[in-house]
Structures are given as structure tokens and as C-alpha cells.
Design brief:
The complex is a heterodimer of chains A (157) and B (252). With 157 residues, chain A is mainly alpha-helical. Helices cover 84% and strands 0% of the residues of chain A. Classes of the chains: A mainly alpha (157), B mainly alpha (252).
Chain lengths: 157, 252
């Protein structure tokens, strides 16, 4: 039976030998808990929590900034659209103006040309009448001269 | 009987020998202490304290090296405690549950990884502190005290309401449970670690090379699992003691 002694608390030994080791180990463990609480759990836990809050605040700030940027971008886009619309309207107005001015000018020019042509026609007509008249006078004087010449050999009466 | 005798025959083998139940006694007044347990546990405690101090000596916002490792450990422990105790109550219990886990884990692995047996003691041999029944019973009793303290500090005398919570019929079983909890906790850990060391020892005795390696790897695995189980169960008991409705028992 002597080999079984290691199982029993006989002869000051054995597997199930409970003695003062137990309370001292418990005490030692509680001291370890206290020491690790001071050197490990508290500082590192604080670091983890700090990092959590840091990340959370940073994230919310970044989100806020992103929202602001998106709002600004939308505003600028709207403004750009407005400006584009305005510029299109201005271009259209300018084109219409130009069109109007061009047609007006063309009309004026045509009218002037008409007027000038009429004046020229009138002057021409006048000159023609004058020429005709002078021509008629000349015809009369010429015919008289011719008549005189013809009638020169003939005694009058 | 016969196997034990044959084991004794193998003791003549020069490479390794198996010593079970022999203690290296220290006398403290009239008290007897297991010296080998204290020696290895001081090593484990020293290791934990040194690593903790190194990890927290210069805390950075962006962790690296040993701080990273210990932050991983702390997050693991926090998750464990949070899962078992609950989001609201877990914080004050993190040091206790975490130290249980770390102490048992480092003890188990030191027993499996560090060749303690090269250091000769006059009597007995250095092994993992958790392969001594005193250590495991101490931890289990502390766990019992912890969950009683948790229950009483949360509910006062209303804690006794837990004993008749689902049905009054449960009262005797609940009372028995208070005794079986530390018993099962301590014996599970003690048995697993001691058995693992014995199996490795016997295999080394029979075939000194290579053959014990898979068993040693398995031993590392069980050691880690046992530490996890002990800490999880301790947290579960604490959480159960603080629960509003006494329900949900876990036994492994």
C-alpha cells in the first residue's frame, strides 16, 4: 500500500495536502489583484476609454465637418447653376438685341438706299426734262435756222 | 497498483522521473507551507507585475509593442466580464476576473513551457502553481466570497431571494450549489493541470523524444482553456448573484 501514500495527507505529503499554503495563496492573490489594479487595469483601462472618447469625438467632429462641406458644396452648386442660368439669359438677351439692332440697321440702310435711289431718280428725271427742254429749244432754233437757210434763196414775198 | 509499481521501476531510468505528491515544505512558525508552489507563483506574479509595469510605463495613444499586447489582453478580459456580468455591472469586477484569468493562464503555461525540473529542490519539484490543490481551492474560495459579496452588496439580504427564485422547491439545490461551485472550480483546474503534467511526465518517461510533443501541444491548449473556463465561470457566478431574476445556470 505504500505507493498510495501520495494520494493521502499522511506522512506530511500527498496530492490533497491542504495546509497554510491555501490562505497565504489567497492573500497573495488578493495582493496581486490590488497591484495589477493599480499598475495594469486602471491606467490601461483609462487609456482605452480615453482613446474611445477621442475617437468618438473626432468621428462626430469629422461627420459634422463632412455635413458642413456637403451643405457648402450643395450651396455652391446651386449658385453655379443660378449663374449659369443667368449667363444663358444674358447671352440670349444679347443675341436678341444684336438681332434687333442688325435688322434695324438693315432696315435703315435699305430705307436710305431707297431714299437715295429716289433722289437720284428724281434728279435724273429733272435733268432729262431739262435736257429735253433744251433739246426742244435747240430743235426749234435749229429748225428756224434750217428754215432761214432754206428760205434765204427765196425772195420774200 | 501494478501500474504504479511499474512506474516506480521506471524511476530508475536516468533521463526523467516522476514525483507526485511530494512537497517542499517550509515551516512558518507552526504552519506548513508548500515552498515549491510559492516559488513558482512568485515567478508568475513577478512576471505579471513586470509586464504590466512595462506596458503602462509609457502609455501612448497609438499602442505598440507590449502595450498593444496588454491592451489586447485587457479588452479580452473586459469582453469576458461584460458577456458574463452584463454591461452595467461588469466594470468593478474586471480586476478580479482578469487577474484570475491572467494568473491561472500564466501559471498553467509556465508549468508547460518552462523547464522547472532543471532546478533541483531538496524535496518535491517545481511545477505550475495551479497543479497544487491549495492554489485552486484558494482561488475557488475567493470566487465564492466574490459572488457572495457581489450579491449582498447589490441586493442586501434580498440576495437570499435568489435561492427560491424560480420555485421554492429549488432551495436545497441552490444551497448545495454553493458548495459544489468552489468544489468543481478547484477540482476541475487542479485535475486538468495535474493530469496534463502527469501525462507529459509519463510519456517523457517512456519515450523521451518527439512522442510527447503532441500531448504537450494539447496541454498548452487545455491550459489556456482551463484558465478561460475558470475566469468565465467566476464571472458567470458573480453575474448570476447580481442578476435580478435568479435564472440561468452554467455548469461545465
Amino acid at each position: 500500500m505504500m505507493y498510495w501514500t501520495f494520494l493521502l495527507a499522511e506522512e506530511g505529503g500527498g496530492l490533497f495536502d491542504l495546509d497554510a499554503t491555501l490562505p497565504l495563496m489567497a492573500l497573495q492573490f488578493m495582493v496581486l489583484v490590488a497591484v495589477l489594479n493599480a499598475t495594469f487595469y486602471k491606467p490601461l483601462g483609462k487609456a482605452l476609454d480615453d482613446r474611445d472618447t477621442y475617437i468618438r469625438t473626432n468621428q462626430s467632429e469629422a461627420k459634422e465637418r463632412l455635413m458642413k462641406a456637403e451643405a457648402l458644396a450643395a450651396q455652391y452648386e446651386q449658385e453655379a447653376a443660378n449663374v449659369r442660368r443667368q449667363s444663358l439669359a444674358i447671352i440670349a438677351a444679347a443675341e436678341a438685341d444684336a438681332q434687333k439692332i442688325a435688322s434695324q440697321k438693315i432696315a435703315e440702310a435699305q430705307q436710305e438706299a431707297q431714299v437715295q435711289r429716289e433722289q437720284a431718280q428724281k434728279a435724273l428725271d429733272l435733268e432729262k426734262q431739262e435736257a429735253m427742254r433744251s433739246l426742244e429749244q435747240q430743235v426749234e432754233s435749229l429748225s428756224r435756222q434750217i428754215l432761214d437757210k432754206l428760205l434765204a434763196g427765196v425772195p420774200i414775198g | 497498483m501494478e501500474t504504479l509499481i511499474s512506474l516506480n521501476v521506471f524511476n530508475a531510468f536516468p533521463l526523467a522521473e516522476l514525483e507526485v505528491g511530494k512537497q517542499f515544505y517550509w515551516e512558518l512558525g507552526s504552519l506548513k507551507l508548500h515552498g515549491q508552489v510559492f516559488l513558482t507563483s512568485w515567478f508568475v506574479i513577478g512576471l505579471l507585475v513586470v509586464v504590466s509595469v512595462l506596458a503602462t510605463r509609457n502609455i501612448q495613444r497609438i499602442p505598440s509593442g507590449i502595450q498593444n499586447l496588454m491592451e489586447y489582453a485587457l479588452e479580452f478580459i473586459r469582453d469576458l466580464a461584460k458577456n458574463q456580468i452584463g454591461e452595467k455591472e461588469y466594470r468593478p469586477w474586471v480586476p478580479f476576473v482578469g487577474t484570475l484569468f491572467l494568473f491561472i493562464f500564466v501559471s498553467n503555461w509556465s508549468g508547460a513551457l518552462i523547464p522547472w525540473k532543471l532546478i533541483k529542490l531538496p524535496n518535491g519539484e517545481l511545477t505550475a502553481p495551479t497543479s497544487d490543490i491549495n492554489t485552486t481551492v484558494a482561488l475557488a474560495l475567493l470566487t465564492s466570497l466574490a459572488y457572495f459579496y457581489a450579491g449582498f452588496s447589490k441586493k442586501g439580504l434580498g440576495y437570499f431571494g435568489n435561492y427560491v427564485q424560480p420555485v421554492p422547491f429549488m432551495l436545497p439545490f441552490k444551497i448545495i450549489e454553493d458548495f459544489t461551485k468552489p468544489l468543481s472550480l478547484s477540482f476541475r483546474l487542479f485535475g486538468n493541470i495535474l493530469a496534463d503534467e502527469l501525462v507529459v511526465g509519463v510519456l517523457v518517461l517512456l519515450v523521451p523524444l518527439f512522442v510527447p510533443l503532441p500531448v504537450m501541444a494539447l496541454g498548452l491548449f487545455t491550459s489556456a482553456i482551463q484558465a478561460l473556463i475558470f475566469a468565465t465561470l467566476a464571472a458567470a457566478y458573480i453575474g448570476e448573484a447580481m442578476e435580478d431574476h435568479g435564472e440561468g445556470h452554467e455548469e461545465h
